[in-house]
Every structure is written in structure tokens, then in C-alpha cells.
Amino acid sequence: MRIALFVTCLADAMAPQVGKATVTLLERLGHEVVFPSAQTCCGQMHTNTGYQREAVPLVRHHVEVFEPYDVVVAPSGSCVGSVRHQHAMVARDAGDDALADRATAVATRTYELSELLVDVLGVEDVGAYFPHRVTYHPTCHSLRMLRVADKPLRLLRNVRGMTLLELPAADQCCGFGGTFALKNADTSTAMLADKMRNVLSTGAEVATAGDASCLMHIGGGLSRLQSGTRTLHLAEILAST
Amino acid sequence: MSSTFLGVPAPRGVGHLRGTQTFPDAARVALGDSQLRRNLGHATSTIRAKRAAVVGELDDWEQLRLAGSALKTATMARLDEHLERLEREVTARGGTVHWARDANEANAIVTRLVQATGETEVVKVKSMATQEIGLNEALEAAGIEAKETDLAELIVQLGGDLPSHILVPAIHRNRAEIREIFLREMPGVDPELTSEPRLLAMAARKHLRERFLRAKVAISGANFGIADTGTLLVVESEGNGRMCLTLPDTLITVMGIEKVVPTWQDLEVFLQLLPRSSTGERMNPYTSAWTGVTPGDGPQDFHLVLLDNGRTATLADEVGRAALHCIKCSACLNVCPVYERAGGHAYGSVYPGPIGAVLSPQLTGVEDNASLPYASSLCGACFDACPVRIDIPSLLVRLRAQHVDANRGGVPSAEAAAMAAASWVMSTPGRFGAAESASKLGRLLGRSTGRISSLPPPLSAWTASRDAPRPPEETFRQWWARERGTS
């Protein structure tokens, strides 16, 4: 299958290893990955911070870039959530119904990584090998906007050599929330403290999730504490052999 | 009322809907209170588990939620007709209906009604509407003592405190603290009182029973006002409401105009949704309904005060009005990670938690509560828990946009300038690539550890508690171009 990679602006600029792992994984499974290089950002940060008007050109650009492709994948529940649940609304609120319809069409062909693997490609065992103790944090938008449910866990359970440890209070937010982490830094940190306490209670070496943004938050806290637990994106574990 | 034209400007909400501090400032204080954190964490996780268990028993829970949402949407679309019907039916059955534009008018009406009885003491059923309008303080200023009879409200009142939760107003207190309050403030309490829940409840019961028996006037709120029969309905757990609603001569009910439902049949849905979402019970212990005045049985003088206080203004927004669908169950508070840590007082308004963050700014106008729409990580747990499916995250985002739009024009804030610049940069790939290259100046930081532990404002808010990753040597698009060429 020919799959267009929407790498997300955050992974592009700050976590390129996530994009590379996604490419490695999909190519290993025998698919063709293309990277439409004109892509930038889905505009979620603008929309969620109240700058919906400024999000309109980003939505338009995203639609124009990805419109030609039949299948689009992003290694992010949050960015796919924005594409699926916000793009049409942003366009419609700006009075551009035509753009809203085009955005809806692109959204129906856009998948988060675990959705693509399990629902579209029908794979649960991707042939990965990762001999480490790992705990999985289901990010809020993949859980409650996309309803990926246990798809990431089904993929992780098939990774050879890996010990998957259950994260207590897994469905609680890590406190990232985009600009929430800056505007309400203290409350965000209190949420992060509890998330880290739960991660560390598992004894895992690695905390994984489907969003580079949440991992940057959790990982930033674990690193500050010199905790000895690191973060890796789901794609990085699934790409390991 | 489906039209947004209102003729005259709808009144904005006044009363206890605004805090003196912004949410981040108020939350900072609460987060440092280890007793509060422990009390809230324990209480919310207990209620969450109870709710999850009883909701899980019903196969048709999602259909019930859809029905609740549909009933509320339909009711709001014809709210004016339902309210006039309610007024007619209450009046026909011997009650008197009063309309209050805002908190001040409602307080004046209730004060005048109590004064007309000659009484200087009233008993109260737990009610959010009377908390909202600050009725107790208004009555006190007129020399009338209002006594709360709900156990948790009594604890809050005796402690000179403020409620911090819609259902469990003293959730921020544990039993050791409650014992101390009772010993200090409850006249004639047994000095040997321990913190055993049964003994605390018995002390409160003895204290309250004297009040019930001598009270001539009671004040309540209403969970539902049923238009087609003019019936008011209160659900509760302790029986204090039943005492207040049946024993006194005069009953005054203050009800927000959004609480009207067209028919009794609607309660089939709401009385399944409310207790399971609220206390985590299949059915609440006491459901009291009264219709006007019944000679020789119960209060012989009944007044219904219909409160606007910003609700008509909220109704004018066809999307935002969904916040008025709230049946005050507080399930969203109990699942909210922000509420669980910051507590209810940080929200400033009597309506805390996720629903408060969308309701209070709409009742007052968003500029009067500008920090509340941002008091959420948009995790979505509230939407999942809401029995009437209020999409709180979407409403929060919408209110953020209203706040930003209200501040356009003039000199842009640093944030607005940054957002505009980011939009300009990210709407073309060339500019974005250039900006990414520039951001690699960040590689000058964190060279020894690979992590950045200190950044200038506003990013210092990040590095105060988390390291930031060092920008990579090569972005993904640069790697792709080098490895694969451009596509």
C-alpha cells in the first residue's frame, strides 16, 4: 500500500526518530511510504489556544498537501484527533464550507499509527523484538477522541522479548495539554508528578505512548528527576528488531 | 427562543460566579495544601469507582445519555413556552411565581417574602441556585439567619468555609477536620465526640432536628420543574430536604430557568442518569415532589422564584447553551484531573470543575472569567462522564476563541503575536523549514547532557519542572531529503 506520512511538526522538528521509526516499520511490512514535503502543522495548538482564525490557513494548507493521497498516517493520536474532529469545524466557523467538506474527506483517510496497523493493514504482530521492561500510557486524544482502545496494547503484546507492565491509573492525563503546560504550569506539574509516580511504580525502563508531545512532557519530568526511566514512541518499539 | 434576537440585552450573571484570583494563581495555593490533595484524591477516586460500577450495570447507558441530551436540546429550543406553562400550572395550584433577572433581584424577592412572614430564621435545602446568588449573605444582611441542613453544607457553614464541589461541598474536609469544626462551632455538642462517621452524623442530626421542628420558613432549590403539572422536584440522600419541604408553613423555591422539563415522562430518563452519575447510587434515597399548595398538608404558602442571572444570555449562543443542559450531577468534577488536584475553590465560582469552566464564563461573560476556559488539559474525561453528553472540551475551545477574539485590535499580546507569527510560518513549507533551521540554535543549549533544563520566559514555565529536549542535529524532513530525495 502507498501511505503518505504526516510526520507532525513536533516530530519533524524535535523527535525525528519517531518519523524515521514509522518509515522503517511500514517499509518492513512491505508498504511504500511517501513524505509530502510541503507539509507543516495541523494547527491544533492554534485552535486549542483560542486562535482559531490563525488556524484556518494551516488547515487549508494541510488539506491541500494531503488531498492527493488515499491513506495518510501520523504517529500521533492528538494530531489525527485534530484533523478528524477540528479541521472541518475550523473551516466551517470561518465560513468556508467547501474547505470543511474537503477537510472531512482528508480526515476519513487519515489514521493514527495503531489504527493503520490494526484496522487498515490488519497486522497485530509487526515482527518487532525489544528485550526491555515497558509500560504503556494511553494518551488522552488517542483514547477519548480516536477511541483506539487496546490497539496499541495488542501491537505491544506481540513484541518479542518485551515485558509489558500495566500502568496504574493509565487513563489519567499526564498534564501536558499543549499550552496548558505553560498557562497552568503548576497544575500540569502536579498531574505529571502523579503520572511519573505511577510510571516509576511499575519498575519499567521505558514508558511508551503514541504521541511525541505527551512523551516529551513525561520524559522531561523523568529526566529532570534522573529517574533512570526513559521514554520511547510506540513506533520506535515496533520498529525495533 | 431559538432566535438569538432578545430585544433588550440579557442580564449577565452576578453573585458568586467570579473569583478574586485567576485560576492559575488560586490553584497554586491549593496545590501546596497536602491535606487538601489527600482529601480530594481519596474522595474523587472513591466516587469514580462507585459511579463506574453502577453505570456498568446498565446495557442502555449510552442510549440514556443520548436521550438525556436530546430532551435537553429540545427543551432549550422552547424554553420560554415551557417556563410560561410552568408559571400557569404553579399559579393554578395555589403557588406564586416570581421572575428574577439576576441574583440581586432574586435575593430581594426572597428577603421580602421571608420578612412578610415575620420570621428571622429559615432552614435550607442544599441548592446550587441559592449558593450562586449568595442568598445566605443577603438574608444575613437583612437580619435573617439561614441554616443549611444538608450535612456537608452544614459543615461548610459552621466552618465559615466555602463549598468546593457541587454534590459534596465539604469534599475538601476529612472527618478529623469535621470533628474539630463540630466541637468548635456546634452548641451543646458532646465534648467526647470522636471522628467516627456515625457519631458525627448523629451529632449533626440532633443539632438539625431542633431546627426542623421550630422552622416556619424553608428555602430550597429544585432539580426539576415539571411544566405540564407545575410540580417541583428535589432529589437528595439525607432526608433533610424532605423535612424542609414538608414541615414549615412557608416554602420558597429558587430555580434556575434551565431546570424546567416539559413532562413527568422526561424524568424516566433523568432519574436514571442523575443518581448513578452523581452519588454512584442506582436510586437516590429521597425524591420529593410537590405541586402548588395542598390544604392541610405541607406548606400552605408556596413561592417559586425563577432565576435568570445570565442564563438567557447563555441561551443566545446556540452551541454554548449546551452548558445549560447540566443536571448538576458533578460526575465531570470527579473524573477531572485538574479538579482532583486544584480543588473547587480555585475556580472562584460556586460552579467548579469542567462544567464550571464552561458555565461560569458564559453566565458572567467570558471576559469576567477569562482564565477558566484554560483551566483544562482538554483530556476529555468530562465529556465521557457527562450523563447528558455536554461536549465540554469543545465548549472550552470555543470559549478560548471568544476570549482571544474579544481582545483583538490594539497592541497584540506576546502570545497573540507568537501565534500569528507561527501561523504565518507554518502556512508555507519554505518558511517552516527556515524556522526549523533557526530553532537549531537551541543546540547551543544542553550540549553536555543532551537535555535543556533552563529556558527564558515564557518557556521557563516548562523548564521549571521538566527538561526540554535538545533540538536534533537533523530534522525529519532534512533526513528524508538526504536519504530519499524530495517527493
Number of helices of chain B: 22
Q: What fraction of residues of chain B sit in β-strands?
A: 5-15%
Q: What is the name of the CATH topology of the largest domain in chain A?
A: Glutathione S-transferase Yfyf (Class Pi), Chain A, domain 2
| Spatial order of the strands forming the largest sheet of chain B | 1-10-7-4-2-3
Specify the helix fraction band of chain B: 40-55%
Domain module tally of chain A: 2
Runs of chain A with pLDDT <50, length 5+? none
CATH architecture of the largest domain in chain A: Up-down Bundle
Q: What does this molecule look like?
A:
The complex is a heterodimer of chains A (241) and B (487). Chain A has helices spanning 9-14, 16-28, 44-49, 52-66, 77-85, 87-93, 97-108, 113-120, 140-145, 151-157, 180-183, 185-201, 212-224, 234-239; strands at residues 2-5, 32-34, 72-74, 110-112, 133-136, 163-165, 206-209, 230-233. Chain A is an alpha/beta fold. Chain A has a four-stranded parallel sheet with strand order 2-1-3-4, with helices on both faces. In chain A, strands 6-5-7-8 form a four-stranded parallel sheet, with helices on both faces. Chain A is globular, with a radius of gyration of 17 Å. The two termini of chain A are 22 Å apart. The model of chain A has no long low-confidence stretch (mean pLDDT 97). The model of chain B has no long low-confidence stretch (mean pLDDT 94). Chain B has 487 residues and is an alpha/beta fold. In chain B, the strands form three sheets. In chain B, strands 1-10-7-4-2-3 form a six-stranded parallel sheet, sandwiched between helices. Chain B has helices at 23-31, 34-56, 61-77, 79-92, 103-117, 128-133, 135-141, 151-158, 175-185, 197-214, 240-246, 267-278, 311-315, 331-335, 337-342, 353-364, 381-385, 392-406, 414-426, 429-439, 460-463, 476-484, and strands spanning 96-100, 121-124, 145-148, 217-220, 224-226, 231-236, 250-256, 260-261, 286-291, 301-307, 451-452, 468-469. In chain B, helix 3 (61-77) crosses helix 12 (267-278). Chain B is globular and about 90 Å long. Among the domains of chain B are: 23-82 and 101-222 and 235-249 and 273-281, no CATH class; 414-484, no CATH class. Classes of the chains: A alpha/beta (241), B alpha/beta (487). At the A-B interface, helix 1, helix 2, helix 3, helix 4 and helix 9 of A face helix 1, helix 15, helix 17, helix 18 and helix 19 of B.
